[in-house]
């Protein structure tokens, strides 16, 4: 099963919700599909999905690291659960770069989500400067250290290089494959790793066709029912091993492929082939 998670970011409106969700319901999409919506739309989306007994999962794009209290403007993990969320994005590159989310804050959010029984989709990815400086892998190791000791079926990692987000450059198959294998090497083979960064209907087959890719995190293309549906259908076909378009020739030298294996000390080597129902 390959996951498709739509991240609306701060886009859309209630009309879009009422046009996209029924279209997705009509197509009978299942539990491999999730929507991470702006907070105000969660309740309405939850009602629509529940009324249709849909297996599509609902998620949030952020969560507070605190359980409750005087944190004006924040939303707790327990509140997200009350409104039907099963998953939450943690550490999205836009949270880190635009809102100054530090690794300490991200760690708190990760643990708040896990503690409340939410399924965190933990976003990691190097900046362009880190990549060009040959520091991409080290950046990844530092971020992945937060997951030390957490069973691999309790979360997913989303590899989202910030330079590939927002319709600019798309990572090549070789970029994605190398980094996904590296993340699995660090955290254990059962780790689910999704890719995010300019995934559209026209390149989804190229990304989802890679064995190392367990799903995609989709931004802009999730705002169009036809684009999103096409990506979901591609994911379904790829999960069933149907042939996909040939991979493009990889760009050389973008990823620092040399270097030692980075297994973290004390990490569990849980080989969980199954995607826990989140
Ligand atoms: P785009 O698909 O718009 O590049 O966004 C990717 C992303 O940030 C998903 O979380």
From TrEMBL:
Residues that hold substrate according to the record: 7-9, 166, 198
Location in or out of the cell: Cytoplasm
InterPro entries: Aldolase_TIM, TIM_sf, TrioseP_Isoase_bac/euk, Triosephosphate_isomerase
Ranges in coiled-coil conformation: none
Highest taxon above the source species: Bacteria
Pfam name, any one: TIM
GO MF term list: triose-phosphate isomerase activity
Pathway assigned to this chain's UniProt record: Carbohydrate degradation; glycolysis; D-glyceraldehyde 3-phosphate from glycerone phosphate: step 1/1; Carbohydrate biosynthesis; gluconeogenesis
Active site: 92 (electrophile), 160 (proton acceptor)
The entry's keywords: Cytoplasm, Gluconeogenesis, Glycolysis, Isomerase
Catalyses which reaction(s): D-glyceraldehyde 3-phosphate = dihydroxyacetone phosphate
EC number from the UniProt entry: 5.3.1.1
Record carries keyword NADP: no
Main localization, broad class: cytoplasm
Purpose of the protein: Involved in the gluconeogenesis. Catalyzes stereospecifically the conversion of dihydroxyacetone phosphate (DHAP) to D-glyceraldehyde-3-phosphate (G3P).
Xref: NCBIfam families: tim (TIGR00419)
Family listed: Belongs to the triosephosphate isomerase family.
Subunit record text: Homodimer.
Protein name per the record: Triosephosphate isomerase
Organism, as annotated: Jeongeupia naejangsanensis
């Amino acid at each position: 099963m390959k996951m498709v998670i739509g991240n609306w970011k701060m886009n859309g409106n209630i009309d879009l919700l009422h046009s996209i969700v029924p279209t997705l319901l009509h197509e009978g999409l299942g539990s491999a599909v999730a929507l991470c919506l702006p907070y105000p739309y969660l309740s309405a989306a939850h009602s629509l999905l529940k009324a249709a007994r849909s297996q599509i999962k609902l998620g949030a794009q952020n969560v507070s690291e605190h359980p409750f209290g005087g944190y004006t403007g924040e939303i707790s993990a327990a509140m997200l659960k009350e409104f039907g969320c099963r998953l939450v994005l943690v550490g999205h590159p836009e949270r880190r770069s635009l809102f100054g989310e530090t690794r300490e804050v991200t760690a708190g959010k990760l643990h708040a989500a896990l503690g409340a029984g939410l399924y965190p989709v933990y976003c990691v990815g190097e900046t362009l400067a880190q990549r060009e400086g040959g520091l991409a892998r080290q950046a990844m190791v530092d971020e992945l250290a937060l997951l030390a000791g957490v069973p691999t079926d309790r979360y997913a990692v989303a590899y989202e290089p910030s330079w590939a987000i927002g319709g600019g450059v798309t990572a090549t198959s070789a970029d994605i494959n190398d980094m996904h294998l590296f993340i699995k090497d660090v955290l254990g083979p059962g780790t689910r790793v999704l890719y995010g960064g300019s995934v559209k209907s026209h390149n989804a087959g190229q990304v989802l066709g890679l064995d190392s890719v367990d799903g995609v995190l989709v931004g802009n293309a999730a705002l169009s029912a036809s684009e999103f549906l096409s990506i979901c259908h591609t994911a379904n076909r790829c999960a069933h091993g149907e042939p996909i378009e040939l991979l493009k020739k990889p760009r050389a030298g973008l990823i620092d492929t040399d270097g030692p294996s980075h297994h973290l000390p004390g990490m569990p080597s849980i080989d969980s082939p199954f995607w826990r129902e989140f």
